[in-house]
Recover the amino acids of this structure.
């Protein structure tokens, strides 16, 4: 499997034309077609709807492309960080672990604001499911974990990770906030395709996998608020980005972080169901293993503990950019 195949798929998604995509990839059209088919063979599913004109990606194509773009971005970032570290080998690389949806939009803005207030640091990000992030924190593979925690949930988020050994002493501080909002595709008149206030209709529900932390956050709120309404799960995925694609395609409604879907709402690709009682406030918390630190990570922690709200918490207007 060649990473250039995913770049070909990106070009095809942008142009909806094999010839134009081949020009962007600097290859012949037959070569690009062969590489797309090789990618489909590797994926085991059809990624491009060739019967549609102009051509477009299938649902599977959209999902795998979004995952690939995140992976390629991370690889490029890791490569640059490795090169930077080799140029200054005595500098420590601070490693953050974060849930996928946090790493997509919140983390880059937060890191920029942090470095402007503190000082530039060499850093890398590992975006993964929460249990894996917490396992890496306990094993010393990352210095900090950035994760969502329900504001009204007293149990620390690290208790969600069912590790096969006792947890070391962990502590966390709040560095931001977000809110899970119910979203779906809009109708032609701009109103939501689905109506949560209509108790007579069963609604298609795009849910997080049972092992996803956000599923545990949503479940009690939904059970309480929708006691007389029915949600029929039609798709599950632990990644909010995958649910976002399904919601944009009109396949159901999903509770997604506002920071992730704000650009889609502004562009009219998604709309938020307006009843504020359906929204679920979240803290964004930074956690560390107190037994695993060095002078730099201890200094960063002390700085954040003193100044976690100035200027590091991004407000809604910044998240909407």
């Amino acid at each position: 499997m060649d990473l250039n195949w995913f770049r070909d798929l990106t070009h095809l998604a942008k142009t909806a034309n094999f010839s134009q995509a081949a020009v962007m990839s600097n290859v012949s059209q037959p070569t690009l077609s062969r590489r797309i088919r090789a990618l489909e063979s590797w994926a085991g599913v059809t990624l491009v709807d060739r019967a549609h004109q102009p051509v477009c990606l299938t649902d599977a194509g959209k999902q795998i492309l979004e995952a690939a773009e995140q992976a390629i971005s991370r690889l490029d970032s890791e490569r640059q960080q490795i090169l930077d570290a080799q140029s200054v080998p005595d500098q420590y690389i601070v490693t953050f672990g974060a849930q996928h949806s946090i790493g997509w939009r919140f983390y880059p803005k937060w890191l920029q604001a942090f470095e402007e207030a503190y000082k530039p640091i060499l850093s890398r990000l590992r975006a993964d499911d929460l249990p894996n992030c917490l396992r890496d924190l306990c094993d010393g593979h990352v210095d900090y974990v950035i994760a969502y925690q329900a504001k009204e949930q007293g149990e620390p988020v690290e208790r969600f990770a069912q590790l096969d050994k006792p947890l070391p002493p962990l502590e966390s501080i709040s560095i931001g906030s977000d809110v899970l909002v119910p979203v779906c595709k809009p109708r032609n008149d701009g109103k939501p395709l689905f109506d949560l206030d209509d108790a007579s209709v069963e609604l298609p529900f795009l849910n997080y996998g049972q092992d996803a932390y956000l599923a545990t956050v949503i479940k009690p709120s939904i059970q309480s608020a929708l006691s007389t309404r029915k949600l029929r799960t039609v798709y599950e995925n632990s990644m909010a980005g995958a649910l976002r694609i399904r919601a944009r395609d009109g396949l159901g409604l999903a509770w997604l972080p506002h920071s992730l879907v704000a650009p889609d709402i502004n562009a009219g690709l998604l709309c938020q169901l307006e009843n504020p009682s359906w929204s679920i406030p979240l803290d964004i918390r930074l956690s560390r293993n107190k037994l695993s630190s060095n002078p730099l990570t201890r200094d960063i922690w002390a700085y954040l503990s003193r100044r976690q709200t100035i200027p590091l918490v991004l407000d809604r207007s910044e998240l909407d950019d």
